[in-house]
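Lab notebook, bench 4. The sequencing result for the construct came back, and we need a structural model before the next group meeting so we can plan mutations. Quick request posted to the team channel:

Model the 3D structure of this chain.
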Amino acid sequence: MTLGQKKAAAWAVVAAYLVVAGLQLYALGSSGSWLLAVIAGLLMILPLIGFWYLWRELAFGWKVEEMAASFEQEGSIEAALEGDRSDWRLWYVVAAGFDDDGDRKKARAAMRRALILYR
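Done. Here's the predicted structure in token form:
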């Protein structure tokens, strides 16, 4: 499955979820009770927060996947390690090292640094 197909599939699932959640909350809100209408309005915020968080995580993963493909095409790990601190390849390798060591927090921080430098 290509990266474009993965993106399309992920967005299709998110869109379907938002439609179903929106319809259910609309039904709850239009039941006639003002309290249920307020609750439905407040509950609509939760899927939007979830959508934002999911988009952020998916975008992170897609960019990392793009970086990995670029890294494989461009060169080796040794070249990245000999680079300067402003090279995204160095931070990519550092993130992979932290991930292999089991330190996910530092791995994500290093990968975010690599993403900033990659753009």
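Residues 1-58 form one domain.
Will bring this to the meeting.
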